[in-house]
Design goal:
Elements lengths: L3 E7 L7 H11 L3 E5 L10 H6 L2 E6 L7 E6 L4 E5 L12 E6 L2 E7 L9 H21 L5 E6 L23 H12 L3 E2 H5 L25 E5 L7 E6 L15 E5 L8
Parallel strand pairs: 1-2, 7-8
Antiparallel strand pairs: 1-12, 2-4, 3-4, 5-6, 6-7, 8-10, 9-10, 11-12
Helix pairs in contact: 3-4
Length: about 270
């Protein structure tokens, strides 16, 4: 296994935040990046700018709120699939999978599900079921796999500053949390929580009510590692400085660092 830094970042409009993205890539130099919420069709995706920054890229663009991409530093990701198996009915660009630097990287943008109850929440749960089914195959793979992206799920009350104004939100519903737990029960390792069990880390701060300034955040961006990859996990964190830049996304990049050697078992 190579030493790798893998990150996931909901960019919230790649053309609107391109300067933020390029600044972060130059400063942190992640080896693999999963992007979500591109908000652009393929014809307007800034591939040349990303390639000029030293990254190969595969992407599935779409207008509105969707679109996903995988970047590889000094390498071209090899696309495996786009869209979830069995979900050919879904026209939204929410999933892309590629092999990058020896790791199978699954980049996802899970539906938000609001307002709930209603058709958008039903769609969220239906999409989640297809993810869980495909994830079982990836989890059992002998190849190292990371399932990374904006899951639009706050796994526990510890992953949010305060539940009071979010109790009716789709991100905190028992059904959403139960689906996320079923992923973990397959044997996936939640990297941030595994290394920071007692630290309240956030990856998203909405634009309202000065939530960034008061650190009133949520943890909804996750990197899940299968058993073939988890032993190489060295460190994990959130590049919160990106959220404090001018004209930022409401998310911050979330990352893991992989060692070239397996951790010793305790």
């Amino acid at each position: 296994m190579k030493r790798l830094r893998i990150a996931t970042f909901n960019i919230n409009g790649i053309n609107a935040r391109l300067a933020n993205l390029l600044s972060w890539l130059e400063r942190e130099q992640p080896d693999v990046v999963c992007l979500q919420e591109l908000k652009t069709p393929d014809k307007s995706f800034p591939a040349s700018d990303i390639e000029a920054a030293g990254y190969g890229v595969v992407y599935q663009g779409q207008t509105s709120w969707n679109g996903v991409a995988i970047l590889g530093r000094d390498t071209q990701p090899l696309e495996i699939r786009r869209g979830l198996p069995g979900a050919e009915w879904d026209s939204q660009a929410r999933y892309i999978e590629a092999a990058v630097l020896g790791v199978v990287v699954a980049c996802l943008y899970l539906p938000n599900g609001n307002p709930q109850p209603g058709p958008k929440f039903d769609y969220k749960l239906k999409w989640f079921e297809h993810l869980i089914e495909h994830a079982q195959t990836l989890q059992a793979s002998e190849h190292p796999v990371v399932l990374a992206g904006d899951f639009n799920v706050v796994p526990t009350d510890f992953d949010i500053y305060n539940t009071r104004s979010w109790l009716k939100d789709a991100l905190l519903q028992p059904e959403s949390r139960e689906c996320f737990q079923r992923l973990l029960d397959q044997g996936w390792v939640d990297a941030l929580r595994a290394l920071h069990p007692d630290e309240q880390l956030f990856t998203f701060w909405d634009y309202f009510r000065r939530h960034w300034q008061s650190n009133s955040g949520l943890r909804i961006d996750h990197l899940l590692l299968n058993p073939a990859l988890a032993p190489y996990l060295q460190s994990a964190g959130v590049d919160t400085w990106v959220r404090g830049e001018d004209h930022p996304s409401d998310h911050a990049p979330t990352w893991i660092q992989l060692s070239s050697r397996k951790r010793r078992s305790k």
